[in-house]
Amino acid sequence: MPKTFYILSLGCPKNRVDAEMIWAAAARSGLISVDLAEEADVIIVNTCAFIQSAVEESIDTIVEMGRYKSAGSCSRLVVAGCLSPRYGRGLIEQLPEVDLFVGPAEVGQLGNWLAKEVPPEKFICQSGSSFLPQAATGRVNSLAPGSAYLKVAEGCSRSCSFCVIPRLRGPLQSRSLEDLVSEASNLIDLGVHEIVLVAQDLANWGKDLSVRPALHDLVEALACVKGLKWLRLMYLFPAAIPERLIELIASKKNVLAYLDLPFQHIDGEVLKRMRRGGDPQIIDALIDRLRRQIEDVVIRTSLMTGFPGESEDAFLRLVDFVERSRFERLGVFAFSPEPGSLAAKLAGQVPGQVALRRQEELLAIQQPIALDYHTRLIDKQLPVIVEGVNSEGKLFGRAWNQAPEIDGQTIIKGTAEIGQIITARVVDVGPYDLEVDINE
Ligand code: SF4
Question: Which of 148, 231, 330, 428 has the lowest tally of Cβ within 10 angstroms?
Answer without folding.
Answer: 428
